[in-house]
Amino acid sequence: MTQSGKNKVAQENGASVVHRFIAIAVAGLMMACATPGGVRALEARTALPNAEAGAVKIDNFTFSPATLTVVPGTTVTWTNDDDIPHTVVAKDKGFRSKPLDTGNQFTFTFATPGEYAYFCSLHPHMVGKIIVKAADAGGATY
Q1: Cα 51 to Cα 31: distance, rounded to the nearest angstrom
Q2: Quick check: 86 and 123 in contact, CB under 8 A?
């Protein structure tokens, strides 16, 4: 077999592998969509890495949003956008940040369903709550 013939066979084999991979990926997606709640479950899984879903801003002596609902495994990031230091402290002492200067962040991953009340230890009137709810296969939280 000539070199150009060998190259043609190699190109055809490579194309065959790519076509096979695409067919398997499409079949898997079709199976996910065929199951009850399959599309919603897929959307819920892809939405979890979105950092904005687990973001709390600190500004003007408030936590925003004041209450955030997430699913287990979500990492929440607090960002101090105020011009003075603040802290993030769980009322049950489950987590505690150091004083956060302007632009500093604190993160905590919530593994267990429940309600987690928190406050700023420097300004105790500043309060917030993280609600961790388990999601069903369709993406709904309870």
Answers
A1: 28
A2: yes
Hey, is 141 helix, strand or coil? strand
Q: What confidence tier does 24 reach under pLDDT thresholds 50, 70, 90?
A: low
Task: Give how far Cα 50 sits from Cα of 102, 134, 139, Å.
Answer: 23, 17, 15
Instruction: Give, as one character, the DSSP assignment of residue 86.
Output: B
Point out which residues pair with 62 in neighbouring strands: 59
Least Cα distance to 53 among 140, 130, 138, 136 occurs for 130
Q: Which two tokens stand for residue 1?
A: 């077999």
Average pLDDT of the residues in 50-55: 63
Taking residues 115-127, what's their average pLDDT?
A: 98
Structure tokens at 27: 């079949």
